[in-house]
Design a protein that fits this description.
The structure holds two protein chains of two kinds.
Chain A: E1 5-7, E2 10-13, E3 19-24, E4 31-37, E5 43-50, E6 53-56, E7 65-68, E8 75-79, E9 88-95, E10 105-106, E11 110-114
Parallel strand pairs in A: 2-11
Antiparallel strand pairs in A: 1-3, 3-8, 4-5, 4-9, 5-6, 7-8, 9-10, 9-11
Chain B: E1 3-5, E2 10-14, E3 19-21, E4 24-26, E5 33-39, E6 46-52, E7 59-61, E8 64-69, E9 74-79, E10 88-95, E11 105-106, E12 110-115
Parallel strand pairs in B: 2-12
Antiparallel strand pairs in B: 1-4, 3-9, 5-6, 5-10, 7-8, 8-9, 10-11, 10-12
Classes of the chains: A mainly beta, B mainly beta.
């Protein structure tokens, strides 16, 4: 069974450009989460989808970040325009249900570098 | 407020040595979950263990063991007879079990390097 897949694995862009990260969850997982780790600090929650609906987006840092999950399958996270402080590793995770008695599976992350 | 502290930023030991990764947490909840995740060089986060706050029994899985002590709010992770393949960043995490996985609070991670 395929795990959570993220694309690209690395992205280097200039300040002011736009970048779109993609996450393919495990098939059948309704719950999809985005997290990020900035500057070697702790991993922080960004948002949570249940199918195509945003269940919780309290972690989104500002309106330069837009997440979508059309059709309740894969998700994209767009950063527009990118700033230097957006550099970090962006993780996606998915789970069958939304409760912690069910394990959340994480992808390999996308390393974003804004120069 | 919930918080997880991993005071050890980096640890380097020689292969076959035992190593303990420290984790201290803060929470006002009486019911909560604690986690450890491993991030190998390939990048993905690998789930290692989940414990609930009512189960203070220590757990052993092969060369891995976990010591949960509510009295000191600690959930330490020990690798016995370390191997080069154990080299990774290890994250401790905390959450309210009645919330979704969106409420996992991670520590800043400990980078473990095992030298041959």
């Amino acid at each position: 069974e395929a795990g959570v897949t993220q694309f690209p694995s690395h992205s280097v862009i200039e300040k002011g450009q736009t970048v779109t990260l993609r996450c393919d969850p495990i098939s059948g997982h309704d719950n999809l989460y985005w997290y990020r780790r900035v500057m070697g600090k702790e991993i922080k929650f960004l948002l949570h989808f249940v199918k195509e609906s945003k269940q919780d987006e309290s972690g989104m840092p500002n309106n330069r970040f837009l997440a979508e999950r059309t059709g309740g399958t894969y998700s994209t996270l767009k950063v527009q325009p990118a700033e230097l402080e957006d550099s970090g590793v962006y993780f996606c995770a998915s789970s069958q249900d939304g409760y912690l008695n069910t394990e959340a599976f994480f992808g390999q992350g996308t390393r974003l570098t804004v120069v | 407020a919930q918080k997880v502290t991993q005071a050890q930023t980096e640890i380097s030991v020689v292969e076959k040595e035992d190593v303990t990764l420290d984790c201290v947490y803060e929470t006002r909840d009486t019911t909560y979950y604690l986690f450890w995740y491993k991030q190998p060089p390939s990048g993905e986060l690998v789930f290692l263990i989940r414990r609930n706050s009512f189960d203070e029994q220590n757990e052993i899985s092969g060369r891995y063991s976990w010591n949960f002590q509510k009295s000191t709010s600690s959930f330490n992770f020990t690798i016995t007879a370390s191997q080069v393949v154990d080299s990774a960043v290890y994250f401790c995490a905390l959450s309210d079990p009645y919330s979704s996985a969106s409420k996992i609070i991670f520590g800043s991670g400990t980078r473990l390097s095992i030298r041959p």
